[in-house]
Amino acid sequence: MNEINRTTTFKSVEGKVVIVTGASRGIGKAVAEIYGANGMKVVCAARSVEQGQAVADAICENGGEAVFVQTDCSDTKQMKKLVDTAVSHYGRLDGMVNNAGIGQGGTPLHEYGMEDYENIFDLNSKGVFAGMKYAAEAILRSHSQGGFLINVASIAGILPQRGQALYTATKFGVVGMTKAAALDYAPYNITVNAICPGYTKTSIFGDAPEQAMAFFAKDCPSGRMGEPKECAYLALFLASDMARYITGAAIPVDGALSAGSKNVSHWKHPEILE
Ligand SMILES: NC(=O)c1ccc[n+]([C@@H]2O[C@H](COP(=O)([O-])OP(=O)(O)OC[C@H]3O[C@@H](n4cnc5c(N)ncnc54)[C@H](O)[C@@H]3O)[C@@H](O)[C@H]2O)c1
């Protein structure tokens, strides 16, 4: 087999130990499942024991390896305990996906309270910092040959979103931290990247009315919302040895939502004008 054939598979992820936060549903669940299905040892972290344990159990039932560790990712002590537990259970750590995050939006900046600031920054920013810090230490101690940190940011970390001042601030921060850390760890062969989902069908939209969901699909140049697994495919690639030279990147998975402005109409093609 030549080198291209040997390396263009996801076999390189087999046996890697990875932590996925917010693994109980949505994008985190899809990432945990795809990692488990590809032979990674997955430490699933979430607050809900019932939902988080169910994800770990399902991975094991399908022939994979996974454990669940109940974690509130906005609590830095629990984040340290999560990483320590992963290392004591599997003996090493190769990667971490900081995915747990909350959305907050729909109002102009002045309508947010100071408590909104604390709530969202505690999880989306401080929790991600803690995850990166403790995981980086553990990956370095493990002498991983294929170490990686992945942060699930947002297209709001690339392009500010109206009505989402605080969410946008946290996600710009995550993208910034990702890039700075990529510079820190490049000499140690640990890649650090951000996945930036666009509108993705998960419970993050809570009880948003059907009208809002229809708007999201229409607002996206691709005409539809994304599926959680479409982010998970990228997470698998970034965990593999095919992506060892990709680091410091903030990669949209968004059907071209953040690619540019849709304001200029297709004036030469009136048949496709919306
Ligand atoms: N769905 C989208 O359209 C979209 C778009 C851009 C970015 N994102 C980002 O993707 C990530 C995942 O979101 P999702 O869409 O899957 O949402 P979701 O609400 O379906 O899932 C969020 C996950 O995070 C967990 N979580 C929330 N608070 C937590 C805490 N304090 N401690 C531990 N876990 C906690 C939840 O239990 C759940 O497992 C988030 O960081 C979000 O900002 C989502």
Strand content: 5-15%
Task: Briefly note the structural class of the backbone.
Answer: alpha/beta
- Report the order of strands and helices: HEHEHEHEHEHEHHE
Fold-level CATH name: Rossmann fold
Structural summary, described in words:
This is SDR family oxidoreductase. Belongs to the short-chain dehydrogenases/reductases (SDR) family. It comes from Blautia celeris. The structure is a single chain. The protein is of the alpha/beta class and 274 residues long. The protein contains eight helices and seven strands; from the N terminus they run H-E-H-E-H-E-H-E-H-E-H-E-H-H-E. A seven-stranded parallel β-sheet has the order 3-2-1-4-5-6-7, with helices on both faces. It is globular and about 60 Å long. The model has no long low-confidence stretch (mean pLDDT 94). Bound molecules: nicotinamide-adenine-dinucleotide (NAD). The site of nicotinamide-adenine-dinucleotide has 28 residues, from helix 2. Nicotinamide-adenine-dinucleotide binds next to helix 2.
